[in-house]
Amino acid sequence: MDGRHSIELALPGASIGAVAGAMAGGLTLFAGVPTGLATLSALALAVPLAVFGGLYGVLLGHGVFRPGTFGPAGLYWMAAFPLSRLLQESVAGIGMADGVFGFLAYQAMVALGFAIGFVWMHERLMPHWLLRRAGANPRAEALLGLYVQYAQALRARKGAKR
Amino acid sequence: MPIRKLPDAPPSVHILGPTVFLVALGVGMGESYMWPRLVLLFGPEIRWLFLIGVTLQAVVMLEMARYAMATGESIFSGAARVFKPLMWFFFIVAIAVYIWPGHLSAGAAAFEEITGIPWVVTAVIGLILVGVVFSLAKVIYNVLENVLSLLIGALVLGTAVVAAMVGSWGDVANTITGMFAIGYLPPEAMSAAWFPVIVGACAFAGPSGMQQMWYTLHLRDSGAGMGAHMPKVRGLRHAGEQEAMPSRGFMFDTEDPAEMAKWKGWRRWVTFDALLLFWGITMLVTISFTVIAQAAARQNPGVREVIQGDDREVALTAMADAVSSAGSSVLGTVFLGFIALIGLNATLGLFDSFSRGQADMTYNFVPGAKKLRMSHLYAGFLWGVIIFGILILLFGPADGPSGILDTLAFLSTFAMGAYCVTLLLVNNRMLPKPIRPKWWTNVIIGFGAVFYLGMLFYSLFAFGVVVG
After folding, report:
1. What pLDDT does B389 receive?
2. How large is the ipTM?
3. Out of A54, A136, B256, B362, which could bridge A14 as a Cys pair, Cβ 3.0 to 4.6 Å?
């Protein structure tokens, strides 16, 4: 049961990763490569980004990451994003002009930007999802509790003016 | 000012704050077009000026926040406390600079390239939509923060992934090392044709014109610091629920160590916003766009000649074409899609900010204005600028009369120099000693005043031209 509860926490992050991966992977669909290979390229990026995105949500639920903090999420994507791109290039790429090391270093740098966008979106989507799932999922309820703490701090600020 | 309790700072470094507005306003034409173009023309070394521009803006942001969070007042009220005509100067500059719907044209034109829908139609519909959304909103700030957050999230994720696919280590290494070539200015940059463009690009590194001043209003509406004691601006439909705005801000007891500890918490919170969100995202988007432009120029060297021209729309199309040749035709469309998105962000952000700023100054400083609610004044300025915009789009030159455009660009950069001076005066004279800025912050803001005004007047006197 706990497995299903954890997986539910993965959904927002997995969706963001899948959409980002499919969007960029889909670009190659129109780049003149055969449809089969282009679809493979889209999938080869969307799937690992969705898996890593989902894993981020699960780790958040287990307290490894804290809501709203960037540092650990940035480090996480500095490893996860280059790996995802490496997989995509290995499966359906055109080769790495800089060599594997240069490629990975560049992707790690871009990953920081990806991480900002990812955390930004995740912070927007996750609380809404937790509100829906909190009744049936104790892990979601616990994580929602953390977000509620922040909301209470905001309410306290509003209360202070009365 | 009456003394009230400072609320507790958010318990953790929370990623979402009113900085979303500055990012939405700041990530504009400067980052997506002006700086990538300068890099293609003069090499990545020219980016040292961008580094200075954005870093300066991050410090300005922190200092704007200091007054707004300590008092719950906007910087305009602070300026009026120092010298009332200073505030009226900004009131007039805002009208002169921001009523023209010119910034809409690039976004709408990019949208036309993608869809074929005439840009005037998109722009007029966009203007009406903005007005309707802001009028129906219960609390405008919340709606805008949500919409802008999703748009910026999509922009940041999208540019990062596209840059990951078309760029290389060499491109990004050039782009970043170029930022530290302090003092580099090639001879062709020091000309009447290009120096004013560089001055404009420096002013457009991050939020330009009066956007930093409007940020203080967003801080207040987000409930940051003493802003918690101020009612929020509501949409026209919910104006009746608006609580009366107090005529002055509040101050906390700076002699109380517990209050000072909370103040330090708020400073940490806003510093995180300034450094990671504002500085980081602005830097990231411009690096991504520069990498995309460099990849494009490598594939298609002809693009360099095309973008040397001053026609923004032709150059944007040329960059989109070059991006297409670097990847695929869809990549060019994605590039134009980002430009359209940036145009939409800017429209939403600017119209809200303009109306918010003018309503704040009118409410507090025009005799008799307090008979109206803040929401009514906000709606009045919002619909005023929308109707003027529609009339200009349909019957006049969209960028405003071209003869006065140079003057407006001049005013925009001049306002930035002027707000640095205003900040120094307000923070050092109006705030209690324990929460005044440190000497080195004053030096940086002072440098900002010299930087903007110095480059502006050098351009004016050495070349006889203002920023364009």
Report:
1. 86
2. 0.84
3. A54
**Cβ contact, residue pair B160, A110, below 8 Å:** yes
Given the structure tokens 């060019």, which residue do they identify?
Answer: B332
Q: Do B157 and A67 touch (CB under 8 A)?
A: no
Angstrom CA distances, A107 to B255, B342, B440, stand at: 50, 24, 37
Q: Does A151 touch chain B (CB under 8 A)?
A: no
Q: Residue B325: closest CA among chain A residues belongs to which residue?
A: A31
Report how far residue B324's alpha carbon sits from residue B289's, in angstroms, rounded to the nearest whole number.
Answer: 14
Q: A156 is in which domain, residue-wise?
A: 1-160
Residues of B in contact with A116 (CB under 8 A): 156, 276-277, 280-281, 284
Contacts A125 to B, Cβ<8 Å: none
Angle at A71 between CA A67 and CA A73, to 5 degrees: 60
**Residue B3 near chain A (CB below 8 Å):** no
Cβ-defined contact of B327 to A31 (cutoff 8 Å) = yes
Buried b (16+ CB within 10 A) or exposed e, B86-102: bbebbbebbebbbbbbb
Residue B142 pLDDT more than 70? no
Q: Look at B311 and A114; give whichever has higher pLDDT.
A: A114
Is B23's pLDDT higher than 70? no
Closest in B146, B169, B334 to A106, CB measured: B169
Which of B71, B161, B177, B229 is the best residue to mutate to test the A interface, defined by the most A CB atoms within 10 Å of its own CB? B161
Helix (H, G, I), strand (E, B) or coil at A37: helix
Task: Fill in the DSSP letter of residue A98.
Answer: T
Whether B445 shows a pLDDT value over 80: the answer reads yes
Chain B nearest-CA residue for A156: B7
More confident residue, B335 or B195: B195
| Tokens representing residue B162 in the block | 């596209």
Model confidence, pTM: 0.80
- Average pLDDT, stretch B253-277? 84
Q: In chain A, how many domains are there?
A: 1
Q: What is the pLDDT of residues A17-58, one digit of tens each?
A: 998 888 765 655 555 556 777 778 788 889 999 999 999 999
pLDDT tens column, A141-162: 888 888 777 666 555 544 444 3
CB atoms within 10 A of CB B396: 13
Nearest to B10 among A23, A153, A161 (CB): A153
List the single best residue of A150, A161, A162 to mutate versus B (max B Cβ within 10 A): A161
pLDDT for residue B10 is more than 70: no
Q: Kindly tell me the number of DSSP H helices and DSSP E strands found in chain A.
A: 5, 0
Mark yes or no for CB contact A107/B164 under 8 Å: yes
Q: How many Å apart are CA B401 and CA B63, to the nearest integer?
A: 35
**Length in residues, chain A:** 162
